[in-house]
Design brief:
transmembrane helix; 3 helices; Class II Histocompatibility Antigen, M Beta Chain, Chain B, domain 1; MHC_I/II-like_Ag-recog; rod-shaped; about 35% strand; immunity; about 30% helix
């Protein structure tokens, strides 16, 4: 075994670690994050004589689809909700 002086040995280890380590960009968590959620609301008028149901669907804090029981069908709020409203 060949023994190298301390400074060149440390330099060789640093060089080896630099070459063999993956780039910082590959280590970073690059998974896309998104938020999808829905809300359901019941509104009661005159006690329980009249009930209105609202279901709202959101993607990344933007409402894209809505069901209103007064209308009786799903309606697209944005283009993203159009395919779901048409089905």
């Amino acid at each position: 075994m060949v023994w190298l002086p301390r400074v060149p040995c440390v330099a060789a280890v640093i060089l080896l670690l630099t070459v063999l380590s993956p780039p910082v960009a590959l280590v970073r968590d690059s998974r896309p994050w998104f938020l999808e959620y829905s809300t359901s609301e019941c509104h009661f008028y005159n006690g329980t004589q009249r009930v209105r149901l609202l279901e709202r669907y959101f993607y990344n804090l933007e409402e894209n689809l809505r069901f209103d029981s007064d209308v009786g069908e799903f309606r697209a709020v944005t283009e993203l909700g159009r395919p779901d409203a048409e089905n």
